[in-house]
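Final report, section 2: Outcomes. Of the targets proposed, G-protein coupled receptors family 1 profile domain-containing protein is the one most frequently requested by collaborating groups, and we therefore present its record in full.
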Amino acid sequence: MNHSVELSLSEEFDGSTAVACVILGLSFLVGAPGNVLVIWTILRHVKQRSHTVVIILHLAVADLLVLITLPLWIYSLVHTWVFGAVLCKTLVYTVTVCMFSSIFLITVMSVERFLAICHPFLMMRWKTKSNIKIYLVLLWLLAFLLGVPALTQNLENTDGNVQCFTRELNSDTNTIIILCLETLLVFIVPFIVLSICYCLVAAQIKKMSFNSKEKSMVLIHSVVIAFTVCWLPYHVINIIDLICILSWPDTDDDCVSKPIIFIVGALVFISSSVNPVLYAFFAKNLQGSLEESRLVRLFKEIATNTNKVRELAVQHTLNHLVVELCYTNKLALPCQILKQSH
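The predicted structure is given below as tokens.
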């Protein structure tokens, strides 16, 4: 078995290389300025930042760090890797850590929404500046730890063409361990958490008099969906590689064709540039002013919406508790009032 993990794009065909450069170039031109604008807008104009806005800020930083490496990858695709082994390892490690942290940030955003709607009192205890800082630090530390295998990156010289797109592993065991950890911790667990959170949130919203179609709610859902669409094929290929290694350990044939790997790599990089486009789309119908742009209004609406959701959830929980105590005869007076109202 060829012990390598394909990081993104293939330089095998000239046509594929040209398409790769176009996709990466567009991702850089759209995503880099877009994420810079998001970071500047939040830091400069949004003083009251909800947990969701803070997570969006960290997500924009992670995406920007990925995107600013793209010019070097484009140059490498067109010519050859001339930046040395140290920079190769550094860039691959940076991209890996930031992409993993993005997945964790999306997951935390969904958990935060779940707590705000389904467990508002727990959310009120959790929602402190010190707590969110601790959670974000732990999140980034986990991403740094999971990115360590990327430091095994070595340059590959094929007929004088040096590239930095694969990392060679010295045994099937190491490959299996890395693929299992990456698939489990960076895909299966977050995907299960996302699915459970959104199912429970959807069920709870049906019980509450709350408009789930509000712009900020739809925006958060769109970010999660876009991220899932971009990353799902990558992890599916990881699972296919794992199955191939376990089933046919002595074969040197690739289990997934190069064109498919190329498309999947493109989707992964697109995921780092799509969020500013979503923010701009959802902000276009908001009324701006000379003092604040539409993007500022959008992030402020997200913060306001988070507080509104939590307050409505608290009210719903308290009403449910009163009704429950009433009909168990633990609160006589509220019970009489409630029965008279019905």
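The chain has one domain: 4-341.
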